[in-house]
């Protein structure tokens, strides 16, 4: 019987927003993408539905990785690359980003000495390689480093923690270069009205009623409807082509959301698909896109969304776990809408720091 030696890779396990995963210094991983992906699959325990032989949590929210390194870009502190590690397939996807995992990047950069604390708050400027965009993370700190304790509560996470404010810049046209990749506020795909929009992440957005749903279904109820997902996936394929993303078979972008009228204090109610499952809460990047759509006159949100007045507004999205608040700064309206910036409040917590072991032959 052959014994495989194990190799140690430094990492910190962090809960960022409603997601969780290992955060690595990029240079601690192989530079070659194929070798790196093999290491990440082994680290998470994929492909295996239980991810029993790795640190993955057997859900899409807990099979995520952050890779961070000091940046050489002017005015930027660190470069961040996100990876979604497939649970059941030997596939690592770096096409999308993740705003929840992003919430842990600032704390990680401070923990690893890439950024020095500057007082009660420390600003960390992050370049997101996935989306070619900059984000400012404002992290609570003291003389000893990151402060994780606080009284901020976010939907989908028990208890409270210190807030991490994320200010997203350069978010319009993350993959397509345009707010509306096709130039249309509304168009039809397979008989259903959709808005194809790209703010932080490209998305296909439709009204729940147009697909025979109320929009208030639980993730489990939606996931159990295979016919609904098959219909939605066929539409997503067409949306990908129209948005200039090519054949999106097996890819996670464009993402998908469906809208309905808010029931409570929110401005819009939404369900977010990732895209083969229903998100248990809501992605930050998806929140930026959906909140923009909700404020976009002439889009599929007409008649559903409550639209606060002004160009600098807080948009509340109702989702299965509660509310996501997005601070949205815009100018203009309709097809001429400009998104200046989008901000979100998340929390993060360091869960474990140490070394993660993978078979040593993967690092050769």
Structure description:
- With about 375 residues, the chain is an alpha+beta fold.
- The chain has two domains: about 5-170 and about 345-360, Diaminopimelate Epimerase, Chain A, domain 1, CATH 3.10.310.10; about 185-335, Diaminopimelate Epimerase, Chain A, domain 1, CATH 3.10.310.10.
- Helices cover about 15% and strands about 35% of the residues.
- The protein contains six helices and 17 strands.
- It has helices at about 35-45, 100, 105-110, 220-225, 225-240, 285-295; strands spanning about 5-15, 20-25, 65-70, 80-85, 90-95, 120-130, 135-140, 145, 165-170, 185-190, 190-200, 200-205, 255-260, 270-275, 310-320, 320-330, 340-360.
- The chain has an eight-stranded mixed β-barrel with strand order 1-2-3-4-6-7-9-17.
- The longest helix has 17 residues, at about 225-240.
- Belongs to the PrpF family.
- This is FldA protein.
Short description:
This protein has helices at residues 33-44, 99-102, 105-111, 219-223, 226-242, 284-294; strands spanning 6-16, 19-25, 64-70, 78-85, 92-93, 121-128, 133-142, 145-146, 163-168, 187-189, 192-199, 201-207, 255-260, 268-273, 312-319, 322-331, 338-359. With 364 residues, the protein is of the alpha+beta class.
What is this structure's SSE topology?
Elements (H helix, E strand, L loop, with lengths): L5 E11 L2 E7 L7 H12 L19 E7 L7 E8 L6 E2 L5 H4 L2 H7 L9 E8 L4 E10 L2 E2 L16 E6 L18 E3 L2 E8 L1 E7 L11 H5 L2 H17 L12 E6 L7 E6 L10 H11 L17 E8 L2 E10 L6 E22 L5
Parallel strand pairs: 2-3, 4-6, 12-13, 14-15
Antiparallel strand pairs: 1-2, 1-17, 3-4, 4-5, 6-7, 7-8, 7-9, 9-17, 10-11, 11-12, 13-14, 15-16, 16-17
């Amino acid at each position: 019987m052959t014994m495989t030696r194990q190799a140690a890779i430094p990492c910190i396990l962090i809960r960022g927003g409603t997601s969780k995963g290992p955060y690595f210094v990029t240079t601690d991983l192989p530079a070659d993408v194929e070798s790196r992906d093999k290491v990440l699959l082994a680290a998470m325990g994929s492909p295996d539905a239980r991810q029993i032989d790795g640190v993955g949590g057997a859900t899409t929210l807990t099979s995520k990785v952050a890779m961070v390194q000091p940046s050489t870009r002017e005015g930027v502190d660190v470069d961040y690359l996100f990876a979604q590690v497939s649970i059941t397939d030997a596939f690592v996807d770096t096409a999308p980003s993740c705003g929840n995992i992003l919430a842990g990047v600032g704390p990680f950069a401070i923990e690893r000495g890439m950024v020095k604390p500057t007082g009660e708050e420390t600003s960390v400027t992050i370049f997101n390689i996935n989306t070619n965009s900059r984000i400012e993370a404002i992290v609570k700190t003291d003389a000893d480093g990151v402060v994780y304790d606080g009284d901020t509560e976010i939907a989908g996470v028990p208890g409270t923690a210190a807030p991490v404010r994320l200010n997203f810049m350069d978010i319009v046209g993350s993959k397509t270069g345009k707010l509306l990749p096709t130039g249309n506020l509304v168009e039809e795909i397979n008989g259903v009205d959709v808005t194809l929009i790209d703010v932080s992440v490209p998305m296909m957005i439709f009204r729940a009623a147009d697909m025979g749903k109320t929009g208030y279904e639980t993730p489990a109820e939606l996931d159990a409807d295979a016919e609904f997902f098959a219909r939605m996936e066929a539409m997503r394929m067409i949306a990908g082509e129209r948005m200039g993303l090519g054949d999106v078979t097996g890819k996670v972008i464009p993402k998908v959301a469906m809208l309905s009228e808010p029931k409570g204090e929110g401005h819009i109610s939404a369900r977010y698909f990732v895209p083969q499952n229903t998100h248990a809460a809501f992605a930050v990047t998806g929140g930026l896109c959906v909140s923009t759509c909700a404020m976009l006159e002439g889009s599929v949100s007409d008649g559903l969304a409550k639209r606060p007045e002004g160009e600098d507004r807080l948009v509340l999205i109702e989702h299965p776990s509660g509310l996501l608040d997005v601070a949205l700064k815009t100018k203009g309206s309709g097809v001429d809408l400009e998104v200046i910036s989008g901000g979100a409040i998340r929390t993060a917590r360091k869960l474990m720091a140490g070394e993660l072991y993978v078979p040593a032959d993967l690092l050769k």
